[in-house]
Amino acid sequence: MAHIGSDEVLIVGGVGCNVRLQEMMGQMAEERGGKVYATDMRYCIDNGIMIAQAGALAFARGHSTPIADSWITQRFRTDQVHVDWRA
């Protein structure tokens, strides 16, 4: 929240199943006047929801990538990916 100036946190992926993490994130968000959201447990085991959310946000801001120009890697760290479409 502090690094990107957001007042919301979305917990996804395998760690989203961790109720203690949800509690701790909720307390942190509340202390900063923000909110925390956790995905339904059915989706916490799959990062597809996180990828879909990022894609929806990018598309809503006018970004798209033709299939021929797209590619996949698991080597990116989330803190090293340049995101120029975030409002």
From TrEMBL:
Keyword annotations of the record: Acyltransferase, Transferase
Recorded superkingdom: Eukaryota
EC number assigned by the record: 2.3.1.234
Name by which UniProt lists this protein: tRNA threonylcarbamoyladenosine biosynthesis protein kae1
